[in-house]
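Reopening this ticket.

The earlier resolution said the output was attached, but the attachment link was broken on my side. Pasting everything inline this time so it's all in one place.
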Amino acid sequence: MKTLSDSDLTETGLPLERHKGRILLIACGALAREVLDLKAANGWTHLDLTCLPAKLHLYPEKITQAVIDTVTLHREKYDEFFVVYADCGTGGLLDAACQKLGVQMIAGPHCYSFFEGNDRFSATSETEITTFYLTDFLVRQFNSFIIKPMGLDKHPELRDMYFGNYEKLVYQAQTDDPDLTEKAKACAATLGLTFERRFTGYGDLENALKTL
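Inline output:
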């Protein structure tokens, strides 16, 4: 497999390299590194991976159809599919589509929840309503996912309009990477928010994949 590029994962995703396993994981490009790390660490050779472009998170209304199209494309080759998306802004449409297709998906409203652990996130979400979250991928792609889509690169004065009601940035760290932590601190400073690093590891993502 060629070296993973965050920009490629954002724009085009990760194509299926070759059919080897019996279960196809259909994941968001923002989760590619985490899923591949878990596969390698646990020897999950029965799991194959393809990823949709991470930029679909900017257009959540497109996620459900993209997942349907991917299942349809590979239906004849795989016994099972597992969708590595939470609801992710689809308003329940992705879950309904997965049920209709007869495929499983990861539980939770979004990746911040399942990285934290859905139970823990649910228990603390009301007290963290003014918290803005970043994962490893989003720290690396901060400009592509946050700054440029919001126009803050050209109009930094819009920052308070977007983030004036937030108080804290929580960096949900999947890995121990001092450079990423420093970059996350800089992201918080850019947005005018206090900073907290919270090591989550892979959370419920690992727990879900273990069951397959």
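Reporter confirms the inline version is readable. The mean pLDDT is 94. The beta strands are 23-28, 47-52, 80-84, 104-105, 131-134, 168-173, 194-199.
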